[in-house]
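User: I'm putting together a small comparison set for a docking exercise, and I want a reference complex before I start. The sequence is below, and the ligand is fe (ii) ion. Could you produce the 3D structure with the ligand included, as structure tokens?
Assistant: Of course. I'll restate your input first, then give the structure tokens for the complex.
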Amino acid sequence: MLLGIPTATTPAMPAQPADLLVRDATLPDGRVGQDLLVRGGRIEALGPALPAPAGVQVVQARGGLLSPPFVDAHFHLDATLSHGLPRVNASGTLLEGIALWGELKPLLTEEAIAERALQYCDWAVARGLLAIRSHVDVCDDRLLAVHALLHVKRRVAPYLDLQLVAFPQDGLLRSPTAMANLKRALDLGVDVVGGIPHFERTMAEGAESVRLLCELAAQRGLPVDMHCDESDDPLSRHIETLAFHTQRLGLQGRVTGSHLTSMHSMDNYYASKLIPLIAESQVHAVANPLINITLQGRHDSYPKRRGMTRVPELMAAGVNVGFGHDCVMDPWYALGSADMLEVAAMGLHVAQMTSVQGQRQCFDAVTVNNARVLGLQGYGLEPGCRADFVLLQAASPEEAIRLRAQRLLVVRGGTIVSQMAPAVAQLSLPGRPAQVDFTRQGPPAPARPAR
Ligand code: FE2
């Protein structure tokens, strides 16, 4: 399937706000033949066969998938693209990654952090990823990374929503200046309170850090997003404490537990008590499939645990579950390219969510569910939403995941911010077509069940 947008051989359209009409799109919920009208940077109308106002620029989607932009609910922009500095992670473990980051920190400059983060944001936009929640390490008394990423946040604001989490990487109570630095970071404009209870010295100190951080967030009216139980230890139960303080302090809907990998190893009986508690407290869960399939289970021989949290079970209980990229080319992970479809693909493999419904839930986990985690306003394709969207070379969410589909067009507030040529191979085979792509030819996939 070739879509009616410019290819690499045609001149790029100017990046300027425009009134657009996207014709004949397929939506992630399965609706086909949809037109989307953008005026003044907002979505004005969505439906079949919309009239084209005079002067509007028409884009032919030709059945291609039109989605709200990808959102990453968990990332580390201060470390990204630093792979190999000052050395690589030989063991591949979380703990060597933390140690390596500690070696790198004294060598960092504000300019270098900002430059790498800006390059990553370029990649993100090209991949249709227009909102990122990034943790920023506050366990450096100079707060270099905080200053750098606040600069980046302002710089990318016209085209990318960047939310920052004050993250005490070395432990809130384990690092003597962490709490003071975390408060300084919040004073400077960092948006979210972070934590890492499983890295504190004891379970009791981990629980105490959760209490202190939730109370700080309540005082300041801020959200919470903790690295929580990123461990293979089934007794790492800080998510229980996080859910408890969320309810005690009335923070429902504003708190996220990131990773939650110990849940993979927990006894099923305890998990059957815990999951309803998470749902009741309205704590969001964020799994990081690419990272946790590589970092967890490193102490196992065989069988070797997968280490990702219980995604389908949490979703079935009504918990909002998002997927994060977490790392790209940094002390913890040598791979990645800002592709949230790669994240979704790994998530569905690790969680065995291979049904059509499961695959579409994984697509949601890198779009609408993550938007809920970030609390994004005006996100979506309905009239009134900001005109942010991505046109994919695919006919359905599951095809987009299967192909890591080309992002043919990325639009932010009505402005085209990125274009990519369709992926098409020129074949030289007797009796076969001259061109081939990898999209499905034939009857469309079944429509998505109503949600
Ligand atoms: Fe992380």
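The longest strand covers residues 129-137. The chain has two domains: 20-68+380-436, 70-374.
User: Thanks, that's exactly what I needed.
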